[in-house]
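Support request, please re-run this one:
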Amino acid sequence: MSEMGELDVISHLSVSEQRKAHFAFIGPHHIESIYLVGDPTTLPTLDTLQQLTSGIDLGSIATLHGGYYGEEFARLALQPALASQLVSISSIQDKLALLRAGRVNVILEDLSVLRYWQQHQFADAARFQPLLKVYESPVYFGFSKTSLSASQLRMLADSWQRLYQQGELVPIYQKYQIDELKKLQPTPLL
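Re-run finished. Output below.
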């Protein structure tokens, strides 16, 4: 869709070589921290991701269809012991519903989403906890290089830089409990 100019902006985009060809990255605006999330009272303890390929079976692990969970996870997911545990789901809401219903034991989810569920007292949210960090990465606004000109992209990057330097973004970061401001220093990739 982005190649044909049908998609102008994506709000939560992590950088990859493939995506760089189609998107300019403005931000970052968030540090995505992906965890295995589940009920720790019913699951074995994990110390490393590699354990999922050598003996620890969590049952069904819901992933977001098309989600990116880092190089290590992608490599390990090719191994039969982990691949057999993975279930691809089409939305975050469906992942949560399946977890709450006991249809999956674990989901891969951003820590900020889990905190949102808990803060807004979604049913059973307090029962689910982060079990193991899988991946951490800055996420950006992705603007289509097909839809927008180089000068428009430069203007957006400069505007984001100005907002950051003037401190306009700090109250937003604080509201959403983002405390790693150094990691959010603007680094546009045009």
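The chain has two domains: 2-30+145-184, 32-136. The chain has a mean pLDDT of 90.
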